[in-house]
Amino acid sequence: YLFSLRAVLLDKILSQGLVGLLLEQFVKREFDYEKTPVPTILKSREYNDMHRDEKERAKIIYELRERYAKEQNCPANDMLLNKDLLRIARDLTLITSIVPDKRIDQNRFSKMIDEISRVFEEKTN
């Protein structure tokens, strides 16, 4: 349905002579097709209140969680909740209290937790 929607929108823009206005709006807003969106969790108040080293840990955990969620073919928040991600970034000892969603493969979840722990052990040594 997106292709038909695209066609309808293009027809309206052309028929109403709005191509110039559309281009002008793109230039005014400096529309950037290559812009990489910042994940919502990294824009949250909880994240912004963290110290620099906690933010670095949160980013690392975020990347690991994304990779494992992709392997599991599930939403990243199912793999590890955002609130848990931020809690672990603040205090790694909380990692043992995290309980995975029942739909998540336990072995994959354990591997992710082990990898998160390993990364932080390496950083502290």
Q: How would you characterize this protein structure?
A:
This protein has 125 residues and is an all-alpha fold. Helices cover 66% and strands 0% of the residues. 12% of the residues are buried.
Share of helical residues: 55-70%
Low-confidence stretches: none
Rg calc: 21 Å
Summed over residues and divided by their number, the pLDDT gives a mean of: 88
**Number of helical segments?**
7
Give a quick set of tags describing it:
single chain, 66% helix, 7 helices, mainly alpha, 125 residues
SSE order and pairing:
Elements: H1 2-15, H2 19-29, H3 45-48, H4 52-72, H5 76-79, H6 82-90, H7 106-124
Q: What would a concise description of this structure say?
A:
The protein is mainly α. The protein contains seven helices and no strands. The model has no long low-confidence stretch (mean pLDDT 88).
